[in-house]
Amino acid sequence: MTVQELKSAFQSAYGKTAEAVYFSPGRVNLIGEHTDYNGGSVFPCALSFGTYLLLAKNDKKVINFKSLNQPEIISLGFDQLTTPLDKSWVNYPLGVIAQFVKRGVAITEGYDILIWGNVPNGAGLSSSAALEVVTAYAFNDQLETGFNRTVLAQIGQKSEHEFALVNCGIMDQFASANGAKDHAIHLNCDTLEFELVPVKLEGVKILISNTHSPHKLDSGAYNQRVAECKLAVEQLNKVRPLKYLAELTEAEFKSIESAITDPVAHKRARHVVGEVQRTSDAVKALKAGDLTLFGQLMNASHVSLRDDYEVTGPELDTMAAEAWKIDGVIGSRMTGGGFGGCTVSLVKDEAIDTFIKEVGAAYEAKIGIKPEFYIAEIGNGACKIG
Predict the structure, then answer these.
(1) Strand pairing of 194-198 and 183-188?
(2) Which of 172, 210, 303, 319 has the smallest CB count inside 10 Å?
(3) 33 marked as binding residue
(4) Whether the Cβ atoms of residue 26 and residue 82 lie closer than 8 Å to each other
């Protein structure tokens, strides 16, 4: 939908004109998966599609929420802004507003809110983070609280912990808040120090393949991985003090890995330590223009996520394996939390049509689901657009 169409939808829903329009993007992670909550580095970029939020003040001392994907308007009084609703999409923006209230920000005026997004739900491209960050950005602007983009990302992360009950890392919200056109973000998730790295892909495109097997972070499998990594840290602390798995180099890990007596926790730790190193190497390779090495590291990342972290599944594994068969594919891997969702591939321009045709046909034949493909454009982070 265009912004003008969204304004018309707002007029239809509320009988008034929207006073402001905000946008926040989804993201794709090029490499560095399941390292963010382990204190490691990640390498995401913001996408050109995301979530829009339109609002206008009202005099009713309520906040009205409407999504163009939902039939009803949900109205909440000021005394209901810090309590999650039962299994409602509103928990994502509501959780953000609750974080403002918990930080001592007074909500004194009501708002009518309309939300629409074009991030495919369940694709692992951070539709939830885009919704959280656009809400945080809008209320930061409306309430003149002056929080910087990093704080807005932290507000989004905290709301996901407390209202969606997903113990996510900071990557998704950070990329949505801090993205920059034609750049990826090399983010240290422990210190939140980051570098914007130009993504120069001459004759190569970033291709996202949607398995249409929705990932479900709230299924418990994600939180289980977080717990398994914490167990690995606890057992390693018997021989070496550390807070996060990402503090260990691969050599250091090999010297003390026997302290992890739980075999599952051991596999999870091995992935995290290796993935942190792969991410560092991949950023160096991109800066040096070595896309071949970058692609090899992407492939190795997927294998580790498949074998040691066990978050891929037949859909993602089939998509990656079929991509690896195509001449002109530099690298391909799952992206996002896993358990379904998307892969991300670096594909030479001349191979894109072949990729879409052959990978799509092979995936559909083996899985029975028709996939979807998007050529990614790297966009800016959250903003006010009207």
Answers:
(1) antiparallel
(2) 303
(3) yes
(4) no
258: annotated binding-site residue? no
- Does 128 carry a binding-site annotation? yes
In the set 112, 172, 281, 290, the catalytic residue is 172
Structure tokens, 99 = 């974080």
Contact (Cβ atoms closer than 8 angstroms) between residue 209 and residue 373: yes
Tokens of 297: 């590291």
Angle at CA of residue 272, ends 237 and 29, nearest 5°: 145
| pLDDT band (50, 70, 90) for residue 11 | very high
**How confident is residue 97, by pLDDT bands cut at 50, 70 and 90?**
very high
**Domains in the chain with CATH codes:** 3-198+380-384 (3.30.230.10)
Q: In sequence order, what E strands does 199-300 have?
A: 204-210
Rounded to whole angstroms, the Cα distance separating 152 from 65 reads: 20
What are the CA-CA distances from residue 268 to residues 33, 136, 259, 263 (Å)? Answer: 12, 33, 14, 9
Cα–Cα distance for residue pair 271/143, rounded to 1 Å: 42
- Cα distances (angstroms) measured from residue 149 to each of 65, 146, 154, 307: 24, 9, 9, 36
Determine whether 141 is an active site residue.
Answer: no
**350 a known binding residue?**
no
Taking only the tens place, the pLDDT of each residue in 315-357 is 999 999 999 999 999 999 999 888 889 999 999 999 999 999 9
Q: How far apart are CA 110 and CA 19, in angstroms?
A: 13
User: Does the annotation list 125 as a binding residue?
Assistant: yes
